[in-house]
Amino acid sequence: MVIPDKDDANARAQFRNLATAMKGQNQKRALAIVQLNHTGRQSANFIGGRPPFVAPLAPSPIRVGSGKPIRGAIDALTYAFHAFLFHTPREMTLRDIDEVVAQFVHGAHVVRESGFDGVQLHCAHGYLLSEFLSPKTNRRQDEYSCESPQNALRILRRIVTDIRTAEGNAGFVVGVKIGAGDYAAGRDADDQELTPSERVAVSYVSEIASWGAIDFIEISGGDYEKPDFMAASSSRPPFFARVSKAIRATLDEQCKTTPRPLIVLTGNITTPHAVEQVLIGDDGSSGCADLCGIGRMSVVCPGLPSKLNRELHEGHTSAEDAWWRTPFHPMPDLAPASSLLSWLPKIGLVGAGSSLAWYNVRMRALADGIDTDDEMGPFAAVLRMWFWFTPDDARKLCNWLAKRAVLVISFVLVVVTSLWIY
Length: 422
Description:
The radius of gyration is 24 Å and the shape is globular. By secondary structure, it is an alpha/beta fold. The longest helix is centred in the first third of the chain and has 20 residues, at 94-113. The chain is built from 16 helices and 8 strands. It has helices at residues 9-23, 73-85, 94-113, 128-131, 149-152, 154-167, 196-210, 241-254, 272-279, 296-300, 304-313, 339-343, 353-368, 378-386, 391-403, 405-421; strands at residues 33-36, 57-58, 90-91, 118-123, 173-179, 216-220, 262-266, 291-293. Helix 3 (94-113) runs parallel beside helix 6 (154-167), helix 7 runs parallel beside helix 8 and helix 13 (353-368) packs across helix 14. It has a 6-stranded parallel β-sheet with strand order 1-4-5-6-7-8. Strands 2-3 form a two-stranded parallel sheet. 43% of the residues lie in helices and 8% in strands.
């Protein structure tokens, strides 16, 4: 969904319908919050809405995949694929930055006028706002460099300040989604100590909290060069739990006399046990976040809140209970079904989108009120995402072809005959 540049009554009506549906009709309604995002250098050729081979915007002209060393044939194929898919971005001027700030503020205004309760500013997953935070993507030497948290977060702070000025401090939620591991080329060993990258993330969140203008901060991570956020497995613990716990402890200490932003942890929260780990910890006293971000499980199990509430009331709270460690819904098997596909070289980012396509199809089917097949494979998911047909669409297409069969056959015969004659 795209925020229109100018006031568009039709788009505003569609947004208002969505906000109403999200809030529901009961008294304890949900908050409807819109995530605002600018893709930056990760705007792909052909599918990003941008004219082909026109450079996207970024803090510095560093293309996706250009910094990865080439040590073999697979690395070379990955490099070539990224070079084809992503254009080298154009370094943003100060005027470009002013325009982007204004666009985010305009987006927040459209969101509020459409009846939503707030916005979340996407500053993770390698998109534009997060590109200002990493030396991998930001080589600037001006006031928007990443030499200090204040400089790196300057564009985000300007957006937050202008939104608060325009929309007020009360009754409108402003949150931030920030990456917990996007700020260094590599990661240290997985131990109890925070990596340098994670310590930078903590410093960024601390700076954001000091503004006193943010209601919640969501912790996530990964980008198109390291797409952790696209992978999930019920056998793995919640992503970024360690750094989230450190962030929460830092903010508890920092915000002793003022309310601190709520911390939301997102990534691989697939079981009741994972929810317990996030909210109260294994020992029942020290969780790593205030809220859980559960996306994919809520798509395949739309009644998840009611299901969890029912199971808890029935006493299924024991860590030894098999249900406690069972995913809310079976996770899709997106391994290549064909033995030929499984032997193909694993090119970076290729195939990573099949998981997103699978859930995209499920969401669309849910909206259209039709059933989908849990056994749908990755290839079928990608096809159905791009070429969506409901049963009604399929029937209409068949009827259209049947009515025009004579015309189609005649056209084919004319073409074949012409080729034969000449």
